[in-house]
Amino acid sequence: MKKRLTNKVIIGICATLTLGLSNYAAAWSQNGHRIVAKIAENHLTDTTKNVIAPLLKGEKLAQVSTWPDEMRSNPSEFWQKKSSKWHYVNISKASDFKPASYNISATDGKITDAYALILKATAILKSPSTSLDDKSFYLKFLVHVVGDIHQPMHVGHSEDRGGNRIKVKFFGEETNLHTLWDKLLVKNQNLSFTEFTNFLDTNNKPTLANYLDSQPKDWILESFYIAEKLYDVGNADYKYNYVYEQTPVMKTRLTQGGIRLAGLLNTIFDKSAKPLVNALGNKK
C-alpha cells in the first residue's frame, strides 16, 4: 500500500532540503551579523553616515546585514546557484589562498568567492560611475560578507563544506561544526544583538589600532588558522568546556569584524579617514 505524505511531512522534507542547500552560505546567526554591523555603525564617521544613507534607503546597517542570507529564498538562478559562493573562501592549506591572483575592478573580474566579493564591492563603491542601485546592492553584500569571513568555518575545507559534514553534539543535541559556529555559540549567550553589541564594543585605542592594522586578505587567513584548530573535534561532544574555550574566540571575531567593517567603509566613503590614524568615528 502506498503511503500518502501529510502536509507536515512534505513541509519537513522541503525544509531539510532547503537547509542542506543553503547552510554553507549562512554565517553567524542573524544576531551575529547584526552585532558586527551595529559595532561598525557605532564607529562610522559622520561623512560616511551621510554618504551611505541614500544607499541604505532608510534602513540601518544591522537591518541590511542579513539581507544576502534572506534573499536565498528568492527562486531566481542568481540567488539559488550563483550567490552562495560569495559567502566563503575554500582553503585546504594556507598556500591555496593567493590574493595577488585576484584581478578585480568595478567593471571586470568574476566573483568567485568572498574575497573577490570584497574586492568587487570596494571597487564599485569607490567608483563615481556606478549606479545608486549597484552601490546599494554591493554595500549590503559587503556588510554581510565582512561578517562572514570573520566566522572561521567560512574559511574551511571544500570537501566537508566548511564543517557542515562534520557531525558534533552541543549539550547533547546533534548538530555540525559549521552550525555550531554560525549560530549556537552566539545563541548560547542568551543576549539580544544590542545587548551583545554593548558588551563587545570598545574605544580602547591600542585594541582598535591592532584590529585595523590588517587587510581583508589577513582576515581570511586569521579565520583559516582558527578553523584548522577547530577541525580537531576530539570526541565531538561539546559542553561547558567548549563554551569556556571558544566563546572568547567568537567574541573577538565579532568585535574584529565590526571594527574592521567600520574602518573599511570609512576609508571608502570618507577621504579624511586614514587607517590607524582616524579611520573610525567616535562611538556614541
TrEMBL record:
Residues 1-27 form the signal peptide. One of its GO terms (biological process) is DNA catabolic process. It comes from the Bacteria. GO terms for molecular function: endonuclease activity; hydrolase activity, acting on ester bonds; metal ion binding; nucleic acid binding. Keywords: Disulfide bond, Endonuclease, Glycoprotein, Hydrolase, Metal-binding, Nuclease, Signal. This is S1/P1 Nuclease.
